[in-house]
Structures are given as structure tokens and as C-alpha cells.
Amino acid sequence: MTTPYTVDNAYWSRGYVDPAFIRLGMTRARETGPTRRVWRGTGPRRELPEDPQDLDHLLVTARAGGPAVKLAEFLASAETDAILVAHRGKIVYERYFHGMRAHDVHLSASVAKSWTGLLAALLIDEGALDADQPLSHYASELGGTAFGDATIHHLLHMGTVMNYGGRTFCKPLEAQRYFAAVGIVPRPAGYTGPTSVKEHLATAQAVAPPGTEFRYDNGNTEAVAEALRRVTGVSLAELWSERVWARLGADEDGAYCLDSTGTEIACGRYSATLRDLARAGEMLRRGGAVGDQQIVPERVVADLTDVPPGPAQRALPTGAVRPIGYHNFWWVPDDGHGTFGAKGIHGQRLQVSPGLELVIAHYGSHVMSPSVPVPPLEAVFAQIGDHLAG
To answer: Domain Beta-lactamase-related spans what residues (predicted)?
Structure first.
């Protein structure tokens, strides 16, 4: 789809091109705006056993037909801020770059979408949330909008086919406009658009029936998050803490950034330490268990890879060369290892591969520009997994 060049579009296409600037935003979010704590609970920190391996010198091929390079060199080129590889429940590789430390927090960008999807899956399994009901059943004021008229199932699979304010839909430009609405990026002079999550959702207009197209957009996640608040009566931060975070044995509290009304930005503004991100991945690798405690039903975790028929079977992540599946805000490649993952802009990743007994957590600050290819993190992760599997 061709997006017309206008002064307005030129403004919204700025940014994403300076790793140092991106890194500041990723690591200092709790200092630059309002946040809500996701309490780690009172329980003891759950230690992650270690079995260090020298993967720095592992030769990986980043692109088909390209030269083999050392993993450490690839990570430097990918603007990696931190990476943790856990195999069979033990940390085998952990590195921090650009001044980041193990106790520092980092935004996970759209990895946060997958946490919203996991909470929704939990509540659907319990019967508290009905996937076949439209969002307006839970948030009546959004009736008549694209998101309000879509079912929870459609929303969880990026099935809302919409535009905003009658504009031609362009994902990166609409993402920037959304970030302005919720206060993440500066608004231009004379800005008259929405100034909160819910105001933004209310501007969405359907251009085709829901479920007829895969259209990756932040609004789907924000819509589901609003349904979660309505059916539980608590904030997203409290719900995530109560159901998962406070039961992981996390090192630190997590945090959601907030809009001007105190609403969590569910689509991509959650921050945590790398080890805590890996702890959540290890819980999922073990079928929802932490030690001998089942904190997420095994059937809910197993369902994350069961992509339903429809456009979500042919989803195309940024930088991907072939479609993969998408279910409940999780990416599902058909790799033979039961892999599922969470992905965020600038290199935020959580990959869970039960068949390889592998979890990889990654934070990054790579640029987003038509002139710079997206680092093929998943291809390199697959080679790490194959190496560890022997």
C-alpha cells in the first residue's frame, strides 16, 4: 500500500534511526513519564541456575548465503543491549552491553502484547471473558467503532480491519500517531488528535468486516486490555502482578507506562529486567509451572501454538521473509519445536522452544529504517538452539 508523501506524514515518519536515542528511551522510560508498578510479590527470588558456555565464538549465519560470523559480532551489529539463553532450565549465556546491567530494566515494546494475550487466554479459559462477544459488550461506549464491533477473538488475532480518522492505514505512521496520543513522543504544534488510549480507540473506523484480514495494530491490544479491566475490576498492572508476575520469583517489580488518564499502555510499554523476562519464558516452557506450583494451566500454554484458521495463519512480522502464525498476541512459527514467541520493535524478543528446551530473552536498540535490514534474530536463535541440542 502506497502512503502519500505529505508534510504531516513526514513528521510522523521521523525517529527510529539513532541507536543511542532509542536506547535512552528503552532504558529510561520509568524516569520520563508516569508508570504503574507491577509488584513482584513477597515471595523469595527464584534463582536461575547457571551452566555457562562460551557462545561468543559460535559461528552463525545471519542471512542465507551470507558469511558466518561469531555470535558476539552479530550481537554487536544488531545493537543488542542484553541477551540471555537458558537451556534445560539453566542459564548458559548471558551478556549485557552499552552499560546495561542485570538489575536494570528495559522496555520490551510489543512483547507486552503477548502478556495481555496470556491474561486474556487465562480469563477465557476460566469463563470470565467470552471470546465470541464484541468488545462493546464489555465497553459499551466503544460501540459503533471498529474495535467495539470486533469480537475478542478478532482482536486477539489482529483481525480488526480499520483506519483512523479516514486516513489510509500505514502501520509505522499510525504507531507514531498513537505514541503521540498517549504521550510517548512529542505532539506537533497545533495537534488536535486524541490524548489517551480510549480516545484513540474511539477514532477507529472499520473498512472491512473483522476477521477478513490480518492488520497488526496497537489498538487491538489496547481494546483487549480494556476488556480485561472491565471483567476483573482491577488495573492491568494489578491483574498481571496477581496472576503471573508476583508468582514468578522475580528479581524486580515490573512497570507499565501510563497515559494522561492513568491507563496502562498495554501494547508496548512494559519494562522489566532481562532475567525476569527469561523467568516468564521459562515458566511458559515448563507448561505454566514455577517449581511445583502451576501458575498458568498447562492447557492454556499448550493452546498458544494452536493458531485458528484464517488470516492469522499467514501473519508477516516486520523483517520476516515468510508468513508465520499468530494466536492470542503470540507469534507461532511452524519449526517443529513447538516454538512460540513475543516480538517487539528495535529487537525485543522472548522465544520459547519447548522441543529444544530453550528460552531466549533479548533486548535491543536497533534502528528502524528502509535502508537498514531488521537483524534476523530468529534465524540466529534457531542456530543457537541447534548448537545446544547437539
So the answer is: 78-361
For residue 9, give the C-alpha cell.
506524514
Query: What is the CATH topology of the domain spanning 7-389?
Result: Beta-lactamase (3.40.710)
Q: What is the pLDDT of residue 321?
A: 64
CB 358 within 8 A of CB 385: yes
Q: Name the nearest CA neighbour of 176 among 167, 168, 187, 166.
A: 187
Q: Is the distance from CB of 381 to CB of 360 less than 8 angstroms?
A: yes
Please answer whether residues 109 and 266 qualify as being in contact, where contact means their C-beta atoms are separated by less than 8 angstroms. Answer: no
Average pLDDT over residues 305-311: 96
Inter-CA distances, 97 with 221, 224, 239, Å: 31, 35, 32
Distances in Å between the Cα of 364 and the Cα atoms of 265, 336, 375 are: 20, 27, 10
114-161 pLDDT, tens digit per residue, is 999 999 999 999 999 999 999 999 999 999 999 999 999 999 999 999
Q: Which of 145, 299, 311, 125 is nearest to 222 (CA)?
A: 145
